[in-house]
Amino acid sequence: MLSATNSPRVAAYMPQLDGLRALAVTCVMAFHFIPWVNRYAPLGTMGVRLFFVISGFLITGILLTWRGQPLDVALKTFYARRAAEHRPGSRHVRLARDVSVERLLLRSRDWHGSVSHLWSLAVEEQFYLLWPLLILCAPERWLRPAVIAMVVIAPVSRLLFPSPMDSVLPTSCLDSLGLGALLAIDRWALAPHKGAPYWIGATLVAATLLLRYAGVGGQLQVVALDFSVALLSAWIVGRAASGFAGVPGRVLSWSPMMAVGRVSYGLYVYHGFAPYLLGRYVPGFTAMNWPLRFALLTAATGVIAAVSWRWLERPFLRLKANLQFAKSPDREITLSASRSS
Q1: CA 275 to chain centre
Q2: Alpha-carbon distance 33 to 274, whole Å?
Q3: Which of 60, 7, 5, 17 is nearest to 192 (CA)?
């Protein structure tokens, strides 16, 4: 059984995941704030896919602890905690995000703007709608095959839809979310599947980047890059969950990195608005060289995210942590998964 009572590893605190969140949000902000960075590395893709893998891993792990509980109690707990995330001030952001997604899907092939990055939050919310039913209701022997099928669907979805829809539809992100879920199933199963070759992602990322720089491969190269990054992210998340040793472990556990990881949600949400605000209220901002602009944008986003964490997010995360209708020892997971649970 994949239940909390059968696994002593369920209640593990995983501090290095906050360090990974810091890394992911730094990649996304660099992609948006440094104009030339995408010529050399697709940091936006890398950051978002890493976030998705972390989310799939933590959400699935928490749901696995509730298997064996009454279904109505487990679902009440899960959705009540999701509702607690609808904190004051988020309604206009959600509306702007939905409008932006509709614009992308129906009218535009050139997707820009201060709310464009919020598509990933929409994907996660749609993932949360149906995922609990699969994890809580499916027989244990079906879980891994179902998740593997989900991983396979995503590259096909990216091939079928033209850019820019190829990578932002919910079906196109299922490999990242699914690989995170597969990590959780393997971690908390009594007899986990050994030797999942997530490390192959590093080789595939290097190969697809070489094709990208050479200008060959077309849409197939784009599809392969997303999948490769998801595989590499799954390897990184799996190692961080157990705890990297040596220099990587010290970097991810470094207190400034963990502090950035704790406010990563605010950094991600608000960084898209920073260029508009500074461009409007800071004289000469648009004419500044990119290092100065990057420093100002990062500082402004950091201040806003810190204020949001202190006065908006932390009180609601405490409220969410108290919504424990299901009796399972997932509180320590919740603490390490404050952005995804």
Answers
A1: 23
A2: 10
A3: 7
**Whole-number CA gyration radius for the chain:** 20
**Amino acid present at 188:** W
Question: Of 75, 65, 77, which Cα lies nearest the Cα of 6?
Answer: 65
Tokens read off for 322: 């108290």
pLDDT at site 190: 44
CA-based nearest residue to 287, from 279, 298, 295: 279
**CA–CA distance, 124 with 186 (Å, rounded to integer):** 22
Quote the pTM value. 0.87
CA–CA separation, 49 vs 17, rounded Å?
Answer: 14
Q: What is the pLDDT of residue 222?
A: 84
Name the token pair of 84. Answer: 């607690």
| Exposure string for 173-186, b = 16+ CB within 10 A, e = fewer | bbbbbbbbbbbbbb
- CA–CA separation, 49 and 39 (whole Å): 19
> Which mean pLDDT values do the consecutive 10-residue runs of the chain (341 residues) have?
40 83 97 91 95 96 89 87 58 45 47 76 87 92 93 93 79 95 82 65 92 85 92 95 94 96 95 94 93 96 94 80 54 40 37
What's at 183, amino acid-wise?
L
Query: What amino acid occupies position 145?
Result: P
pLDDT at 312: 86
207 and 234 Cβ atoms separated by less than 8 Å: no
At 276, is the secondary structure helix, strand, or coil?
helix
Provide the residue type at 91 as one letter: R
